[in-house]
Amino acid sequence: MVSGSVQQSPFMSDFLHKCGGYAVVDGGFATELERHGADLNDPLWSAKCLVTSPHLVRKVHLDYIDAGANIILTASYQATIQGFEAKGYSTEEAEGLLRRSVEIACEARDIYYGRCTKDSCDFMDNGSASRRPVLVAASVGSYGAYLADGSEYSGDYGDAVSLKTLKDFHRRRVQILANSGADLIAFETIPNKLEAKAYAELLEEEEINIPAWFSFNSKDGINVVSGDSILECASIADSGKQVVAVGINCTAPRFIHGLILSVRKVTDKPVIIYPNSGETYDADRKEWVQSTGVRDEDFVSYIGQWRTAGASLFGGCCRTTPNTIRAISRVLSNKSSPSLS
Q1: Binding site annotation covers 250?
Q2: Is residue 1 part of a domain?
Q3: Is the distance from CB of 155 to CB of 208 less than 8 angstroms?
Q4: Residue 5 lies in a domain
Q5: Phi and psi of 306, rounded to 5°?
Q6: 39: burial class by Cβ within 10 Å (0-12, 13-18, 19+)?
Q7: Model pTM?
Q8: Does 317 fall in a domain?
Q9: Is residue 99 part of a domain?
Q10: For 321-326, which contacts have Cβ atoms below 8 Å and span 24 or more sequence positions?
Q11: Does the annotation flag 318 for ligand binding?
Q12: What are the pLDDT digits (tens) for 134-172?
C-alpha cells in the first residue's frame, strides 16, 4: 500500500469486479444538451435544463447508458443553491432541483433496466441478457463553476476565498446530494488543493455516508490548474475515508498518462480519468476553441496505455459524446485487443 493511504472501502473494488475489472463513465453532458437544441448561455449552464427541459436531461443520461456507461453523472455540476437563488428561486425550490437532478438520472437507469434489449444489454455466450451495472454519481462542481467565469480552469479565487468560505458554500448542497438517492458523489474539476481540502473536511464533518470520488483538472500534466502539485492534491483525496477513487477530468488527453502515474504514486485507490476533447475553453468568449498546440482528435486510442498506467475507470468530459463512450466501451470489452496487451 502507498505510504499514508487509509484503509480502502470495498465499494469501488466490488463494483469494478462486477463490471469486469474496469468501468465506463459517461461523457460530455452540456455538449449533448446543446446538440439536442438546449440554449445553455446561462450562469446555471446545464443545470438550467433541470427547469426548462428535464426530458432532455433524461434522454442524455439514457443515451450514455445505451452507449455503454456504467456510471452516469447528474446534471448538478453547476446546480447550486446560491446559483438558483440568484435566478429568483426560493431555497426550497433550489434544494428540490438538486434532488431532482438525481431523480432524473435514476429514472433513466430504471428505463434502461426496464427495456433491457440486445442492443443495450450485455449478452452472455449462451445468449441470455446480463444487465450492466449502472451507478448514479451526484456531480458537484467547484466554486469556480458557480461563478460562471471560467475560474475553475484557473483555480484562482483570490485571497478573499478561504477554506471556511468554500465549506460554507458547498455544505448544504453536499448534504442534500448525499441523501438524494445517488450511489456516490463526484467532486469534479477540482482546481486547487484548498477546495480539495474543503471537500475532504466536509465529508468528515457532515459524516457523509455514501462514497465519493475526487477528480482534478490540469493544463500542464504536472500540476492542477491553479499550479498546486497534483501529488499534494491527490494525497488530500487519498486521506478521505469516503473517497473511493481519485483522478483527472476535463484535461487534454495528451497529459493524462503522466498524471495517472503521478496519482498512482500517492494512492492505491482506483484511478478515474475522463478527459475533454483536447480543445481549450475560452472563458471570455464562453466557448471551446481549438488548441494552438497538439490537438487530440481521438483519445480512444490511448485507453490501453492509460489502463496499463493504472487507471480503471474511463470516460469523457467536455466535447465528448455517446459515440466516444461507445468506442471506449468497445475497446475495453475487447479482451484480445492489441491496445490492451
Answers
A1: yes
A2: no
A3: no
A4: no
A5: -70, -35
A6: exposed
A7: 0.90
A8: yes
A9: yes
A10: 321/27, 321/28, 321/31, 321/32, 321/35, 322/27, 322/32, 322/63, 322/64, 322/66, 322/67, 323/67, 324/27, 324/300, 325/24, 325/25, 325/26, 325/27, 325/64, 325/67, 325/68, 325/69, 326/67, 326/68
A11: yes
A12: 999 999 999 999 998 888 888 888 888 999 999 999 999
Q: What is the pLDDT of residues 238-293, one digit of tens each?
A: 999 999 999 999 999 999 999 999 999 999 999 999 999 865 544 454 454 455 44
Quick: pLDDT tens for 59-80.
Answer: 999 999 999 999 999 999 999 9
The amino acid present at 319, given as its one-letter code, is R
Q: How many structural domains are present in the chain?
A: 1
> Domain containing 160: what range?
10-340
Q: What CATH number is associated with residue 249?
A: 3.20.20.330
Query: 208 phi and psi, to 5 degrees?
Result: -60, 130
N-term to C-term CA, the chain: 25
| Nearest by Cα to 135 from 186, 182, 87 | 182
- Partnered with residue 230 across adjacent β-strands are none
Sign of CA dihedral 329, 332, 335, 338: positive
Binding residue per annotation — 233?
Answer: no
Cell numbers that stand for 215 in this block: 477528480
